[in-house]
Write a structure and sequence with these properties.
By secondary structure, the chain is an alpha/beta fold. Helices cover about 40% and strands about 15% of the residues. The structure holds magnesium ion. One of its GO terms (molecular function) is phosphatase activity.
């Protein structure tokens, strides 16, 4: 398969936590922020998202068009995001607890790794950020000088309609003998491919009440637990690590 290489699996882990980045670990979606403030704007973005949810267009082509509407040098985009994107209020504590308890936390994102790394460094500190695992798309600078005055997204899975098919980071774990319990957290259309492969799926409800992923799961009959932030994620992951089944946790949190 063409595209960016898939990292090694955490084969010995008993639990693996995979999470969307934008709007799940962060308070708002950084790509939406770029499009709304520097690109073609929120109205068209929301209309395009609906087309993906209804199957009229695919995420890959919609997202590239959104990014291409942002005609600002890439380094400036990084600065804008560093200034405006904040962490979910419970994430730092959640991440620290997972690290102390040997649970890999893997960020799987349809955004671009260099922007995620830039924001992570600001929010988690340079050293912590450097140890965090990020599976995302990349960026290429398309200006002749290679400075990023113009740029384009490089998809991890260019042949997939998702651009980055997040299910490919989760499905391989399912065939490991005595496989780990799999958690996934997400909020939006970029998470549709991964949603049905976790043992315990967390769907984030945004402060404005927007629940794209939860709405999709309800329509498709995919079990999930709605969360406002990672404080609840930490509490429920602790319950599973303590011995509860993921089915029990899902049933108790409807
Ligand atoms: Mg998201």
């Amino acid at each position: 398969m063409s595209g960016l290489p898939q990292p090694e699996l955490h084969k010995g882990a008993k639990f693996v936590f995979l999470s969307d980045w934008d709007g799940t670990i962060t308070d708002q979606d950084s790509n939406d922020y770029l499009v709304d403030t520097l690109g073609f704007g929120a109205e068209q973005r929301k209309a395009d998202n609906v087309k993906v949810l209804t199957g009229e267009s695919n995420f890959r082509d919609m997202f590239r068009a959104m990014m291409q509407s942002v005609k600002v040098p890439y380094e400036e985009c990084k600065d804008v995001l560093r200034e405006n994107i904040e962490l979910d209020p419970g994430f730092h504590e959640f991440y620290t607890w997972c690290k102390e308890n040997g649970i890999p936390v893997i960020i799987v994102s349809s955004g671009m790794a260099p922007t995620i790394r830039a924001v992570l460094e600001k929010l988690m500190g340079v050293e912590e950020a450097s140890q965090m695992e990020v599976i995302a798309n990349d960026v290429e600078y398309t200006d002749p000088e290679g400075k990023g005055t113009t740029w384009d997204i490089v998809y991890r899975h260019p042949e997939s309609g998702f651009g980055h098919d997040k299910s490919q980071s989760i499905i391989p774990y399912r065939s490991i003998p005595s496989r780990p319990t799999l958690f996934f957290a997400g909020d939006g259309v970029s998470d549709l491919s991964a949603a049905r492969h976790a043992d315990l799926l967390f769907t984030k409800v945004k402060p404005d009440g927007n629940t794209e992923l939860a709405a999709f799961c309800e329509r498709e009959g995919i079990p999930h637990v709605k969360i406002r932030d990672f404080r609840k994620v930490l509490a429920l992951v602790k319950e599973v690590v303590g011995g509860k089944t993921t089915d029990q946790v899902i049933a108790e949190n409807q």
